[in-house]
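Forwarding the complex inputs:
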Amino acid sequence: MPTRRAGRVNEQMLFNLVDLAGTFAFAISGATAARRSNLDLFGILAIAFITACGGGIVRDLCIGAIPPAGLSDWRYLFTAVVAALLTIVAYPWVERLTYPVRLFDAMGLGLFAVYGAHKALLYGNNAEVAILLGVVTAVGGGMARDVLLARVSIVLEREIYASAALIGAALTVLGEYLDWPAVWATWLPIVVCFGLRFLSLHLHWNLPRFGRRDSH
Amino acid sequence: MPTRRAGRVNEQMLFNLVDLAGTFAFAISGATAARRSNLDLFGILAIAFITACGGGIVRDLCIGAIPPAGLSDWRYLFTAVVAALLTIVAYPWVERLTYPVRLFDAMGLGLFAVYGAHKALLYGNNAEVAILLGVVTAVGGGMARDVLLARVSIVLEREIYASAALIGAALTVLGEYLDWPAVWATWLPIVVCFGLRFLSLHLHWNLPRFGRRDSH
Amino acid sequence: MPTRRAGRVNEQMLFNLVDLAGTFAFAISGATAARRSNLDLFGILAIAFITACGGGIVRDLCIGAIPPAGLSDWRYLFTAVVAALLTIVAYPWVERLTYPVRLFDAMGLGLFAVYGAHKALLYGNNAEVAILLGVVTAVGGGMARDVLLARVSIVLEREIYASAALIGAALTVLGEYLDWPAVWATWLPIVVCFGLRFLSLHLHWNLPRFGRRDSH
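Prediction (whole assembly, three chains):
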C-alpha cells in the first residue's frame, strides 16, 4: 500500500531512526511517571511501552497498517524495555533531574509528530489525516499513560504541548507537498516543534484559558 | 465494500446531514465540559473533537472503514471546531443555560445512534454489530470525554442514556430489515431515542440500581 | 486469512470453549466491580461486556479481524449478559464470597492469554505480536473496566497478574512453534497462568517495587 516515495532507502532509514529515538524518549518519560506512581516492575515496563508505542499503534490502526509496527517490530519493544530498565536503575538520578526528562519528552514530541504525519502520507492519506495522526502519534501515548494512572491528562492542561505537535505535523505535510529535500522536510519540523515546546516550558508560555482565576 | 442501498443519493445526503448535526451537538457538549475543567484553548478544541468524533472513529475501525471519516472528512473537524469556538465565545450564556446543552446532547445521542447503526449495516454487518456500534457511536465520544477528564463516565451513571441509544439503534436496524421508507427509518428512531432521553431528564426516570441507598 | 492449522475442527472447538469460559469469568468480575460502583442496570451490563470482550476487540482490531468477534458473534454478548444478570441476582452471595470472584478472574486470565496468542498466530502474526496480544486479550478488558470506573488499574498494581498472562501467552506460542499436541498446547499454558496468579494471591507474591516504603 505505501505508494509515495517508496524506495528512497536513505530517507526511510532516517525516519526509522527518528521513530526509535522518539520511542526511547517517551519510554523514559512513561517509566518515570509509572515509577512515581509506585507501580511494580511489570507496571513500569507496561506504562513505558504504552507511552512510547500507544500513539503509533492507534495511528497504525487508523491507516490500516496491520499489525501495528509497535507490536510486530521487536525494535520498539526492545527500545522501550531498555529505556524503562535504565530509568529504574538510574532513578535517583533521574528524579533529581526533571530537566532531562522534560527534554526527552519534548524531543519525543517533535520526533513522533513528524514520523506520524510522514507515515500517514506514505499510506496515501490526505493532509488532514496526516496532521491529525501526527498529533495522535505524538500525544496519544502520553494521554494513555495519564488515563491509566487515573489523572487528568497533562497533555490537555500543560503549556503549549499538543499545539506544538500540531505545528510540527503541519510543517511535515507542507514539506512533503512542496517536495522539500528530505533532510529539511524531516529536521525543520522536528526542531520547530521541539523548540516551541522547550521555549514554552522555559518562558511559561500558555494558550489562553477562559476559566475563573482561582481554578489553577 | 458498501453494498446495501448504495446509490440512493437522497437518503445518503439525509444521513450525512444527521451525522453533521450530531457532530455539532456533541462538540458543544464536549467543549462545555472541557471549559468547565478549565482546559486551555487547544484542550477545549481537542475534547470537543473527541466527544464529537471519538465514537464514530471507533465504529469505523470496527467495520474497517479506513481511514475513519472523522479524521479524513474535513467537515467533521470543521463542524467540531466551529461548535467549540461558539461555545467559548458564548460561554457565559451557555453556562447559565444548561438546558440547551442537555438538549443538544440528547439530539446528538439520537442522531449518532441512528447514523452509527446505519453505517454498520451499509458495510455489510449483521444486526448485532449494527446495534452495538450504534450505541458505541452515540456514547463512545462522551465516554472518551469523561475518561480524559478523569471522572466516572456519566454515560454509565445517568438517567436513561445509553439505553435510549440502544433502542434508537435497534429501531434503525428493524427499519432497514423491514425496508421502511427512508424518512421513517431515519427519523422515527431519532425521535424515539431523543424523546426517551428528554423525558427521562425531565421526569427523572432511571434504570434500576442495586446498591445501598446512601451511595448516591 | 487464517492459514495455520485451519480445518482442525476439534481443536478450534476446544479454543472456542476456552474463549467463552473466559468471557463468562471476566463478565462476572466486571459486573461485580460495576455493581460495587453503584452503576445502574445498563451500566452493569456494559461494564460486564467491556471487561469480557474489550481485550479481544482490541486484539481483533490489531490483527485485522474485522468486525471483531466480540461484536459480531452473539455468543459473547449472550454469555456476558447471562453472567452479569447472574451476578446481579446472586450479588449478596457473590459479595460475601470474594474468593470465587478472584478464582473466576484468574481463570479468565489464563483462558484469554492462551486464546489471544492462539488467534494472533492463526492470523499469521509473528511470536512477538502473539505474546503481546495474548497479554492484551487477558488484561485489556480489566484495564478498560478500571479506566471507566476512574481508578488506577489494579492490573498494573496487583500481585503477579499481567506477568502471569505474559508467561501463559509465551508458553502458547512456544507450544505452537514446537507443535505440541493440541490438548497440551492449550491446557498447559492455561494451568500455568492460572496457577501463578492463584499462588501469587494466596502467598502474596509480588513483583519488585522501587518506591518509598510508605506509599502503599
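The longest helix of chain B spans residues 9-36.
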